[in-house]
Amino acid sequence: MTGTAARARPTVEGDRSTRAAVATMYRLTAGHRTAVVVAATLALVGSALGLAQPLVAKHAVDASGRGQPVWSLLLALTVLFVAEAATGAVSRFVLERMGEGVVRGLRHSLVARLLRLEMREYERHRRGDLISRVTTDTTVLREVVSQALVDLVTGALVAVGAVVLMVWLDPLLLFLVTLTVVVAAVVVASLLKGIRAASERMQSSVGAIAADLERALGALPMVRVHRAEEREAARIGERVEAAYGAGVRTAKLASLMSPAVELAVQGSFLIVLVIGGLRVNGEANTLGDLVAFLLYASYLVLPLSSVFRAVGLIQRGMGAYQRVEQALHLPAEPPSPPSGQPGQRPVRRTSRRAGRQDAARARTREPARRGAAHEEPAALALRDLDFGYDPSRPVLRGVTFSVPRRRQTALVGRSGAGKSTVFALVARFYEPDAGDLLFDGTPATTLSRAACRERIAVVDQNTYVVHGTLWDNIAYAAPDATECEVRRVVELAQLEDVVRRLPGGLRGMLGERGGTLSAGERQRVALARALLASPGLLLLDEPTSHLDAINETALTAVMTDIARERAVLVIAHRLSTVQHADQIVVLDDGRVAARGRHEELLAHSPVYRELAAGQMLRPIVTAPSPTTAVPPRPHGESGSAPGAPVTGPWPAGG
Length: 654
Ligand SMILES: Nc1ncnc2c1ncn2[C@@H]1O[C@H](COP(=O)(O)OP(=O)(O)OP(=O)(O)O)[C@@H](O)[C@H]1O
Hints:
By secondary structure, the chain is an alpha/beta fold. Helices cover about 60% and strands about 10% of the residues. It has helices spanning about 5, 20-30, 35-65, 70-115, 120-125, 125-170, 170-220, 220-225, 230-280, 285-330, 355-375, 420-425, 450-455, 470-475, 485-490, 495-500, 520-535, 550-560, 600-605, 605-615, and strands at about 380-385, 395-405, 410-415, 435-440, 440-445, 455-460, 470, 510, 535-540, 565-570, 585-590, 590-595. It has a six-stranded mixed beta sheet with strand order 6-9-10-3-11-12, with helices on both faces. Adenosine-5'-triphosphate (ATP) binds near residues 123, 413 and 416. It is found in: Cell membrane. Keywords: ATP-binding, Cell membrane, Membrane, Nucleotide-binding, Transmembrane, Transmembrane helix, Transport.
């Protein structure tokens, strides 16, 4: 987080007074205090130049009344006027540049925060809404900081100067002017709370518009096919109406402030004219005094009215500021643990297995330490891992297995068994509730998340392709890769055809989310990216689910080759792609049901047999077992070709 946001720690939560809002704005300008001092000094000089003008005008009027020459006074008046305008312009520029600087700081902090949130936060918040905090809310704040602060600073300074000189000229008239200003201030204060509430509603409605639009645009083919444009438009339309309603209410309240301010301006002028005129007639004051006082009244009332407006604007900005603050305080991934120190683990759930797990952990660490001397530790080891996205609904229970180096380990199981969740834990998107994760024998909690992620590359089911060139997408994990390295992974991932076809070849642009590629091509791009990263451990989640049989066979062979150099953990629904794996781990309802090679599992694991049978699209004859009651998994889910070859004991049509 940059300094601005860090220093702008909120008092806004709970304290909704105007003073707190102004204090927040003040804190926001931390780091820009030189600009504030320069601008305030200039404003002060400008005010002094402005306040001197009525005095000169008074002398000019009085001198002309006495028949004396006034040209030198008029010249002085002109110089004062020009100098005031120049200092005003410079001070406004300095303050507005500061406003831009404040918003720039907030945007940097927000972007840095939003890219590092805990994974769960992205599930709790809608992405469009988070994005709108960086774009719309900060834009509102820029106006507030640059306009409202300018008006507040300059307005307050000028008003104070005017009051001092008016006391000197005519305290009675000042008292009357003050009365009208106080009435206006009371009206303004009563409107501020409503303005703030309405503006909060408006900002969150704008965030909801962005989120809903993102939802529709992100699933456009689905929207089109189901002819849901109207429905989506109506849904977003409701948000637009809510934003309109809140905006109109804000405008209504803000416009009620105008009559109050006008009352102050016009009322004070009337009072000064009538009472001041009577006092000139009664010879208590000169005509010059009246002219000067009138000018000071304008110097008091006009800046005060801009102070009122500024306070209204600041209250409006508080709605946006609170949303920005809230985003800046969302939980982010913890920074790296100090070297050699265990990292933070979320509070563990106590379970009956806890004691047993500790003993198991002690046992598993022991061989890891001892093994260092004799044999190299596994690239990845999971020891008694427990995890649930929702603490009351465990997804993984006591999962234990290792992924040895230079071997291919396959993770299989029915849909929802927890396979992708294992990947999410290995990538440290979430922390396990209990148990240990070890990379090369080192507990993950003693490593930073970045250090863990450095050891892995993932091809997941979503096969992310971002807007940019094919090269950008492949070299995403290794921006310094050479042409030769990129071409090699293009070849391994069978992407040569795509490179040939794409206008611009490797430097050709892919559409938004890789929209110009087929699903299989996107999958191969993701695979090429992972291969280029060249990590010690390759995690492949259904890497061939979108591929035709020819590409699948070729890539299965590539994976086997890769596994000769590094550890590969592959999730597969199609057992045909992993039947030659060195080890197959069968997950069933979050538990490891069996482990072994294909033939061993066919012989001994009912769950595995059932998975294999499901892929033949017909029941298999097995010895009765508790798991045979579970219906075979439908084929279509994994996109497998019907009748895909599985193993010898399961002949097609058998
Ligand atoms: N982000 C999440 N928040 C809450 N629950 C989740 C989340 N992701 C997955 N789950 C739940 O966790 C369970 C395991 O999901 P997971 O994706 O790990 O299964 P899987 O074995 O990979 O399934 P598939 O083969 O269909 O991809 C499921 O019940 C799923 O609904």
